[in-house]
């Protein structure tokens, strides 16, 4: 009897806030909606290193990111994906230094947390809110369709 074992793609995203609490969103050239900085983790790369690399490549900044994600999400739709969300507060200097780097990102904006669903897919907006809450509490949350657990 043959079974299919999930071999998920792993992606890591940064939920970056400025000193006012606004969330940094990016406009990827290859997506229809705004998103968060980050992307797929390379084979053999730690997710924490992958998110740091992606932020550096996309935005030309090197914020202090935690080694542990605040949210881990299982996304079984459109292929199995394991998504990790890392929260970090930028200094005012880092927030001013954000620059689009490369061809992948065509714009960025600062977004009030109450307006996230206007710019992001609602599921991503919910993960951003969970990430910020978990980060404030020093938690890591695991979420999948229909449930969220503290781990």
From TrEMBL:
Q: Gene3D superfamilies this protein is in?
A: Nucleoside Triphosphate Pyrophosphohydrolase
| Entry keyword Magnesium | yes
Provide an example Pfam family for this protein: NUDIX
PROSITE patterns of this UniProt entry?
Answer: NUDIX
* GO molecular function terms attached to this record: hydrolase activity
Boundaries of each Nudix hydrolase domain copy?
Answer: 7-133
Q: Does the keyword Glycoprotein apply?
A: no
Known cofactor(s): Mg(2+)
Keywords, alphabetical: Hydrolase, Magnesium
Which InterPro entries does the protein's record reference?
NUDIX_hydrolase-like_dom_sf, NUDIX_hydrolase_dom
This protein is called NUDIX hydrolase
Please give the organism.
Actinomadura geliboluensis
What lineage does UniProt assign to this protein's organism?
Answer: Bacteria, Bacillati, Actinomycetota, Actinomycetes, Streptosporangiales
């Amino acid at each position: 009897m043959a079974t299919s074992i999930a071999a998920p793609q792993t992606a890591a995203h940064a939920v970056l806030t400025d000193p006012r609490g606004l969330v940094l969103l990016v406009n990827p050239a290859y997506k229809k909606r705004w998103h968060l900085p980050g992307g797929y983790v390379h084979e053999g790369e730690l997710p924490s290193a992958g998110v740091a690399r992606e932020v550096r490549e996309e935005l030309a900044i090197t914020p202090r990111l935690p080694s542990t994600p605040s949210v881990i999400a299982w996304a079984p739709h459109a292929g199995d994906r394991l998504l990790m969300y890392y929260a970090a507060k930028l200094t005012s200097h880092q927030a001013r230094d954000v620059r689009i780097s490369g061809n992948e990102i065509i714009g960025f904006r600062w977004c009030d947390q109450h307006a996230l669903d206007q710019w992001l897919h609602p599921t991503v907006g919910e993960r951003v809110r969970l990430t910020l809450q978990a980060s404030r509490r020093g938690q890591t949350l695991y979420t999948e369709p229909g449930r969220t657990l503290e781990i």
